[in-house]
Amino acid sequence: MAGIGGDGREQLRATVHGLVQGVGFRWHVVRLSARLGLVGWVANRPDGSVEIVAEGPRQSLDLLEADLRRGPPGAMVDRVEVQRGPASGSFPAFAARSGSHPGD
Hints:
Order of helices and strands: EHEEHEE
CATH topology: Alpha-Beta Plaits
Number of helices: 2
CATH class: Alpha Beta
Number of domains: 1
């Protein structure tokens, strides 16, 4: 199947736009990703959006994506841009990164 690694894991890259900074969005994503068994990172972007890179089973990524479209209480999600592809296998855990992180 296209987009799936040899171990059945995929990567989701998402950018969430709206009122998504200053409302606990990153920590919400960290907690949810840990519960779903995902690895990767989340970071605030200078333009006010939040960027997420997550890897894991497709079903878990589907649940994460659905949640990103809602956000935590206090957030107002306008739109979510999502790309899927094969997992890189380069993340040991899921973490919040500083907004100045250049990404992967």
